[in-house]
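Tokens in:
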């Protein structure tokens, strides 16, 4: 879907991206991660030509991006950024509708799409449609930013720390929402973050960038279990590696198929990390797990979490 070939970019003679080679497949949720200043935003902006590259080629759908008009490219790629960038004097509805309007969609189709997205992002349309950005919380503004990026159903979604400024609860909710949208739509998403937990949670593959160079490209599990070097191991956090690993696995996977036990019940999307946390908090050694439909799916035992792989507690 998007291919970087030997991409280089300098600002005032200083290289910020150096010989970048990367293929982003259709339907991936690729996360670019690295320290501040490592070149992540620059890489993202080169995809939709907000920043030109100096050397190499970037292909979109098999064609060099310089073959597209910047405007056409941007209409096919949603772009959501941390600072949101909503137009302050436009209503929520008009902000979300900006790209469909540019594309000349009929009014009725635009209205329906705006309401659909507001509902998807948990902002009841009749309550939020006519509000202005300053009448929303930061988290709600970021939701509108994401809705706007999704509005014209673009092939690609580029997201630069879209949940950066949020409180942890709102961030977790939006992360789950993005995951769901990705699974439902199969869109190609490129997301920039400096938060390793966010990367591990969301990514189909993680690209770790350091000083404009790719250090490792790997699935979240491979990044944790097979770090390419000491830099990667440090970046993913040696001390709570086990907890991060638990956060990649779902509780329902390890649950035993048996009737519910008295005590607490975990939601379907709970990770083993959340399960272990809940068991520690409530001083219990087992929890019930429900499936996606909310029905009892089984019982997870602490002993099974800590049992050797393949072993039976
Ligand atoms: P990240 O998103 O990983 O924090 P950036 O891609 O924003 O990193 O920046 C990479 C490097 O390029 C940084 O050293 C930054 O200061 C520099 N840089 C970014 N944009 C510009 C610009 N417009 N002019 C000059 N230097 C820039
Ligand atoms: Mg950045």
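Residues out:
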């Amino acid at each position: 879907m998007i291919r970087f070939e030997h991409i280089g970019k300098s600002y005032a003679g200083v290289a910020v991206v150096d010989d970048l080679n990367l293929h982003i497949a259709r339907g991936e949720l690729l996360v670019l991660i690295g320290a501040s200043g490592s070149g992540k935003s620059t890489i993202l902006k080169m995809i939709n030509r907000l920043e030109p590259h100096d050397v190499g080629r970037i292909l979109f759908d098999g064609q060099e991006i310089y073959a597209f008009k910047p405007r056409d490219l941007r209409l096919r790629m949603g772009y959501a950024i941390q600072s949101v960038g909503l137009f302050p004097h436009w209503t929520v509805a008009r902000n979300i509708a900006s790209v469909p309007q540019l594309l000349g969609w009929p009014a009725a189709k635009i209205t329906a799409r705006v309401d659909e997205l507001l509902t998807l992002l948990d902002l009841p349309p009749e309550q939020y449609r006519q509000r202005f950005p300053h009448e929303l919380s930061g988290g709600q503004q970021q939701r509108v930013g994401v809705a706007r990026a999704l509005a014209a159903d673009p092939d690609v979604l580029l997201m630069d720390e879209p949940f950066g400024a949020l409180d942890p609860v709102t961030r977790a909710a939006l992360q789950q929402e993005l995951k769901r949208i990705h699974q439902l739509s199969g869109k190609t998403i490129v997301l920039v973050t400096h938060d390793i937990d966010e990367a591990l949670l969301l990514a189909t593959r993680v690209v770790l960038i350091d000083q404009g160079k790719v250090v490792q490209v790997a699935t979240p599990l491979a990044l944790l279990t097979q770090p390419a070097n000491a830099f990667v191991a440090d970046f993913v956090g040696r001390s709570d590696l086990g907890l991060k690993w638990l956060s990649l696995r779902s509780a329902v996977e390890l649950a035993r198929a048996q009737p519910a036990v008295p005590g607490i019940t975990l939601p379907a999307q709970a990770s083993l990390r959340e399960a272990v946390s809940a068991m520690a908090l409530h001083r219990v050694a087992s929890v019930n797990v429900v499936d996606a439909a909310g029905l009892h799916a089984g019982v997870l035992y602490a002993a099974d979490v800590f049992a050797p792989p393949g072993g039976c507690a």
